[in-house]
Design a protein that fits this description.
Layout: H1 24-28, H2 35-50, H3 56-68, H4 71-75, H5 82-93, H6 124-133, E1 139-149, E2 156-163, E3 166-167, H7 169-172, E4 179-188, H8 191-194, H9 196-206, H10 233-244, E5 255-263, E6 274-283, H11 286-303, E7 316-317, H12 321-352, E8 358-363, E9 365-371, E10 377-383, E11 385-387, E12 393-396, E13 404-409, E14 418-420, H13 429-435, H14 438-447, E15 451-453, H15 467-473, E16 478-491
Parallel strand pairs: 15-16
Antiparallel strand pairs: 1-2, 2-10, 3-7, 4-6, 4-8, 5-6, 5-16, 9-10, 11-14, 12-13, 13-16
Helix pairs in contact: 2-3, 3-6, 9-12, 10-11, 11-12
Length: 500
């Protein structure tokens, strides 16, 4: 899917257009102090960075995971980090380069089992991150979805249940409450072909994309009457920014699109089977959620000292002020993200002159208070994962030229009532720019009859996993109710840097 990209895939250009470099101090912070080892790590890391194979945060995240547990990297033939992993294993057999545990909290020595869906298509870095996550002293259960790929702390596509009084900001994600929203109209799907220009113009006139973009007119801004906007100093300081960005979308994989929805018989109450015109959007809590995530993740890493490989999994105590503040801000970000989608959908429906007959939506970067099958109360973090409790409706998109799906959860306990949040990236943004052919991308869009406004090579369908493979891997988690075929797609302009 176009989603879930977090900051590990930001462009490699630094401030002033200078190429980034991974310095020795950054490597030493991972626990690398021996000069010879430092040279080897630096050569590999900066080589990957120079050739745009990975972005800097992704490289450092892999190195953290490798130092903690080199074996998964050593077993991957042809892997970019295999030689480093072999060196670390050999040195430890000699009693050298023994990892020093740092911080107030140690990880569990044993690695708990966790189920993985679609294992054959999940990169080793995501598996290593999930192994670290389930070793947290507060971890109760974990699961990895078939669209998983590496992120900060918890992999994107990762689900982690922690003790009932703990929450991990980075396991919620940088774009708090990033979500999907689907409006179904009682209009024939053929309208996309017969009214193409009208539908395209409606998108242009009623959607706004980009980092920091704002609007000046609102359909319904009543959310800002809520007393919650005065609850904390941080929330108060962000209220004006949130108000200005109400009804806007971000960059990267955020989109608003018209498509053809094919609904199965009996899928939704009072809506007959058939093909309908539908509107699908994907975005989150904009600058408000990003600022909340940044502020409280820093507090968490200050309050909760963990070994280097787990530092982005630092948690807040919900029994303390900072934990309660984050919980309030996170839930407000959820309401705000929902209001953002409603604003977009309501404006478009008004321009269309037709109200939707159904609207379905769900978060996929959030934390919920839930109970496991045995009754244990937990906080469930779904970072790029869709809630899939029994009977729960959700939306799992593909890419700009592949279908998304309206699904009903089956309530699988082993997945912690979760499913994928999309197709998941098959390659990083930098790799997409380096390897994908613009002519082939354009041909693919023509073949699939896609009208595209905005976007760039890094969001090409080829940069994502096969959505059909992902859905097949999780047939025990969700029931497919409808298929959504995108046709008129609007995303941020290519000049916009990804922020999601």
């Amino acid at each position: 899917m176009r989603k879930q990209h977090s900051p590990e895939t930001l462009p490699l250009q630094g401030a002033g257009g200078q190429k980034e470099k991974i310095g020795n101090n950054e490597l030493k912070a991972l626990g690398i102090n021996d000069v010879e080892i430092l040279v080897n790590f630096s050569r590999v890391a900066n080589g990957l960075l120079k050739h745009n194979v990975m972005a800097k945060p992704e490289i450092l995240a892999n190195l953290e995971a490798l130092i903690h547990d080199p074996m998964p990297y050593a077993l991957k033939k042809g892997g970019k980090f295999k030689n480093l992993a072999d060196d670390v294993i050999a040195l430890r057999k000699e009693g050298k380069f023994v990892k020093q545990e740092r911080g107030n909290f140690k990880l569990k020595e044993e690695i708990a089992d966790f189920p993985v869906w679609g294992l054959e298509n999940i990169e080793v870095g995501a598996l290593a991150q999930m192994r670290t996550a389930v070793q947290l002293p507060i971890a109760v259960a974990g699961a990895l979805m078939p669209d998983a790929h590496q992120g900060y702390g918890l992999p994107i596509g990762g689900v982690l249940a922690t003790t009932a009084n703990t929450i991990i900001p980075f396991a919620v994600g940088v774009d708090i409450a990033c979500r999907m929203c689907l409006s179904i109209f009682d209009l024939p799907a053929e309208a996309i072909d017969t009214e193409t220009d009208k539908l395209k113009n409606i998108l242009v006139d009623n959607t706004y994309f980009g980092m920091g973009c704002t609007t000046k007119s609102y359909f319904d801004s009543s959310l800002f009457d809520s007393k919650t906007w005065g609850e904390t100093k941080l929330i108060r300081s962000l209220k004006d920014r949130a108000y200005a960005q109400l009804g806007t979308s971000g960059t990267g994989n955020h989109f608003v699109e018209w498509g053809e929805l094919t609904l199965t018989e009996g899928a939704l109450d009072d809506i007959p089977a058939g093909k309908y015109l539908a509107l699908l959007s994907h975005s989150g809590s904009r600058g408000f959620g990003g600022a909340v995530a940044d502020y409280y993740s820093r507090i968490a890493m200050t309050k909760t000292k963990l070994p280097a490989e787990a530092k982005h999994l630092a948690w807040l105590d919900l029994d303390k002020d900072e934990g309660q503040e984050y919980w309030i801000a996170m839930n407000l970000a959820g309401e705000y993200a929902s209001a953002n989608h409603h604003e977009i959908h309501n404006k478009i429906a008004r321009a269309l002159g037709v109200k939707p007959i159904s609207r379905i939506e769900n978060h996929h970067n959030f934390a919920w208070k839930e109970h496991l099958a045995d009754g244990t109360e937990v906080i469930v973090h779904r970072k790029g994962a869709t809630p899939a409790g029994e009977g729960v409706l959700g939306i799992i998109p593909g890419s700009m030229s592949t279908p998304g799906f309206l699904v009903r959860g089956k309530g699988d306990a082993s997945s912690i009532n979760s499913a994928s949040h999309g197709a998941g990236r098959a390659m990083s943004r930098s790799a997409a720019f380096k390897t994908l052919d613009k002519a082939l991308i354009a041909a693919n869009l023509v073949e699939k009859r896609i009208t595209l406004m905005g976007s760039d090579v890094d969001e090409a369908p080829m940069a994502y996993k096969d959505i059909h493979t992902v859905m097949a891997a999780q047939h025990d988690l969700v029931e497919v109710l409808a298929k959504f075929e995108p046709r008129i797609v609007r995303m941020a302009d290519a000049r916009e840097k990804p922020e999601d």
